[in-house]
Amino acid sequence: MRRLAAFFALPGSDRRLLVEAFATLAFVQVVLRVWTIERLRRWAGRLERGTRPVDRIVWAVRTASRWSPGTTCLGSALALQRLLSAEGYVSELHIGVARQQPGLVAHAWIVHEGRVLIGDEEQAAYTQLTNWRAGELSDGSRAPGLPQG
Prior knowledge:
The protein is of the alpha+beta class and 149 residues long.
C-alpha cells in the first residue's frame, strides 16, 4: 500500500515514465527469448525525439528493475537503452564476463557520454566481450535534428 501511495504522490510525468519503464522491461524480458540479437539491437537503438532528462530515465529503469521479479542486468540495460534512444540519446550497451567459481558469469551495463548509467556497481570486475552503440546512423554520425545527449 505504501508503494502505491508513493507512486500516486509522484508528478504525472514521473508516473508515466515509471509505467513506461515497467512495460519496456517486461517487453524486453519476453523478447529476449524469441528475437534475434540483431532485431533486439535495432529496436533498442531506434532514435526518436524526446525531452525527458537522462537522470529521470535512469531513475525509472532502476526503480522498475528493483520491483520486477526475475529482472537481469541485460534486461535492465536493454530497457534503459531503448528508453534513452526514444528520447534521442546515444548510449552504449556493454557485455562482459568474469571468472567466478565454478566458471564464468556475465554482466551488462549502459554508458552514456562516458558515464556508466546502470550496472556500474560491478562492471569494473568484468572483461568486456562486446558493446554496441545505439542512437547513431550506420556511418557513425548522429541522426539529423536530434538533441545532443
